[in-house]
Amino acid sequence: MNIRTTEYLVFDGVTKRFGGLPVVDTPFHLTVPRNQFVVFLGPSGCGKTTLMRMSGGLDTPSTGEIRLEGEPVGKPDQRRGMVFQSYSSFPWLTVGQNVAFGMRYRPDLSKKEKRRRADHYLRLVGLHEFADTYPNRISGGMRQRVAIARTLAAGSEVLLMDEPFGALDAQRREQLQVELRRIQSEESRTVIFVTHDVEEAVFLADRIIMFSRRPARIIEDIDVTAHLGAARTLALRDSEMFFRMKTRIIQTVREMEVSA
Description:
Elements: E1 9-18, E2 21-32, E3 37-41, H1 48-56, E4 63-68, E5 71-72, E6 80-83, H2 95-101, H3 111-124, H4 140-153, E7 158-162, H5 170-187, E8 190-195, H6 198-204, E9 207-211, E10 218-223, H7 224-228, H8 240-259
Parallel strand pairs: 3-8, 3-9, 6-7, 7-8
Antiparallel strand pairs: 1-2, 1-4, 4-5, 9-10
Helix pairs in contact: 2-3, 2-4, 3-4, 6-8
């Protein structure tokens, strides 16, 4: 996977307060290269989701600026697609129609091209055979794949994912983690993935940004790919290097809890 080192998504001195509550108090600086898979790892309520939402245009910084390819981030647009923990499919539409729905505001695409793209992404996530099925007839893991396919089909260059596998059982969660890494590699997308699960973070990330308790500040910026490589398979979880990295991060989290 080719990752450019030039600036792509930039958090420049960002802070956020909700009324009198500081969520991100220390000015937050981070540069995410194009096509990098970045995991925001931290305790629940620490501010990592708020930072992700600001990069998607759902919240605005109190101070500072977020830029995508040099342009300030504004309201949500098709370049930045969001996938949440809840299954966001439309029950009155089939799986195929749900995926195509993400392209409804793409006047640059013909009906034929929209059908082609919907078919492509259904195949990419392994749901082509379920195109005419309604969401209430498929599993939770499959509905989450529908949400991912819809975001990809819409043409989103940046995937913003807020604990999208949190409600799934362990087996489906592992399967979708492998699937997401494969899709991200094949499609060359930039990903910001929010989680508080250390094992999930280590398995998925090219890079982990570890956060303190609220108000959010960076504790550590970890280059995972330098230690584990870019390829991710379930067998990696049984490797000594994976175990060492996971254990070290868990220890850092414990030390943070003690000092809090």
